[in-house]
Fold this protein.
Amino acid sequence: MYTIKQASLRSGVSVPLLRAWERRYGVVAPQRTASRYRLYSETDIERLRTMRMLVDGGWSASQAAEQVRDAGDDALRALESDLRAERGVREGPGALTATSSAFVAAAARLDGEAMDRILDEMLSTRRFETAVDEGLLPAMEEVGAAWARGELDVAAEHAASEAVLRRLGAAFEAAGRTREGPRTVIGMPRSAHHELAALAFAVAARRAGVDVVYLGADVPDESWVRAVAETGARAVVMGAVMPADAESASDALKRLAETHPSVVRAVGGRYASRTVGSALVLPERVTDALAIFLEALPRG
């Protein structure tokens, strides 16, 4: 039997998302110790792992849960085996690593045509959220790492970022705007400029039917307050991808808590856990962050 942290590590499903899937879809039903701690079986791990692959492959969470929830051990293993084989054929060994390396090389040459071609390949062969989690953002992390090592000039890093921003901006417009779901304001806090993940999340949220108002980078504290007041937003999401972003986000979240206490406040990114105040901390993966955020949105 496994604790929730062990189950998370073995299944590849973050703890917050695991809890959300358990609560909303009943995909697993862990045992409880006398102290009420969850304990997960090997079959629970297999269900979570298989659901992870289905969702990454483009299934909705509800469809994936229905597929794995009541499957017997043999059927579950067969499904997981088929999914692994299919994914291996579709992507090939090392495909994502090779794609990221090719993107870095294209950026180093300032070859905009090649960068666009690679981005086309990333986004056309997978569901958008999976492409972002497994292709686009890892490629940009490699670009940043290459710049930090002195292997890329700042011009190349900027060219790569602009190419991705253009593509995400087009995806945001293509997703269209709905006025049915709860309105959500998304952007980066004061002095925060690394907005790629925030914009990718905004695209994913729009695709999920959320009425998104995207503010972009470096939004002052009072502008967050005004944006919520002007739009009637019921939720805000901001990013914290650098250490200084956590402090800026904390200040903005504090002001929002004072002025709009009923608004759902969420923060995502590598340094989201360092923010101070009562806010929902979202995981880095867009797929997981979206599932948890949608669970927290007010209904009606």
In short: The chain has three domains: 4-91, 95-173, 176-296. The first strand starts at residue 31 and ends at 32. The mean pLDDT is 86. The radius of gyration is 20 Å.
